[in-house]
Amino acid sequence: MSTITRPGGRTERTRTAVLGAAFTITAEVGYGGLSIEAIAERSGIHKTTIYRRWGSVDAILFDAIVSRAESAVLLPSTGDARADLNAMARSVAENLEDPMSRAVAAAALSGTGDGSLKELSDRFWDDRIGKAAEIVKAGQKEGQIDAKLDPSVVVVEIIGPIWFRVMVLQVLVDRSFIEALVDGAIR
User: Fold this and answer.
1) CB 77 within 8 A of CB 128
2) What is the chain's alpha carbon radius of gyration, rounded to the nearest angstrom?
3) In 10 A of CB 124, how many CB atoms?
4) Of the four listed, 17, 45, 48, 136, which is most buried by Cβ atoms within 10 Å?
5) Which fold has domain 63-186?
6) What is the value of pTM for the model shown?
7) How far is the C-alpha of 39 from the C-alpha of 96, rounded, in Å?
8) What are the φ and ψ backbone dihedral angles of 165, each rounded to 5 degrees?
């Protein structure tokens, strides 16, 4: 007997609809306007399904952020650590320059006060910084980056100023700024 698979089946369609609705609502009205009911109405997915799958608005927002980061932020491994870090940093900046991504990032930063989004955010950053740190570790192995540098610190020294400029100062970053960050972090 053969098994029939549904590539991108109902589960993926549900996830895509819910995350898309969460992104759109957050971009339009911010975190305060985000609710399971609003997401259900916008997505066309019954709220019982949403509660069963995610359980909370924070979990939906977290899933939306992770989904966007995984698809929009590059973590290349070409063998040229400096070029890979520049590509990663440019993709972080481009993602944050997207109004919808910026709105969701701002919502995540605002949190709910109950700690659940903070806990999810910590997990997100631990994972993303850890994955990006692999670029630094590969560069250290190849002698391109000083082995004494802490890979996680290097990543934070690159992406932290990008987040600050885009999210706090609301200034776009250019290629020369990113290159200066990368060069400064791996010296």
Assistant:
1) no
2) 19
3) 16
4) 136
5) Tetracycline Repressor; domain 2 (1.10.357)
6) 0.83
7) 23
8) -65, -45
